[in-house]
Amino acid sequence: MQFKTTVRFEKNLKKLPVYIRKKFYKQLDSLLHNIQYPSLNTKKIQGCINIWEARVDYQYRFTFSIDAQTIILRVIGNHDEVLKNP
Description:
Elements: E1 2-5, H1 7-15, H2 18-33, E2 43-44, E3 52-55, E4 60-67, E5 70-78, H3 79-84
Parallel strand pairs: 1-5
Antiparallel strand pairs: 2-3, 3-4, 4-5
């Protein structure tokens, strides 16, 4: 699978500490190979059509949607902030 990022995602990613970005890239690799990889804890966001969330770690999450064979990364950051506007 391939992935694209939104401008919002890129801005949020740059604001994160380096160690969180490293964790994210590891999780992204897992996502691209298996969307249901256990450490991702992937689940659909209630009330949103075709928007999913996955874990970077206990505190950080990212959201994405799937369009054909492309994962579109939407938002990354603190769990509560990400889910306010996925």
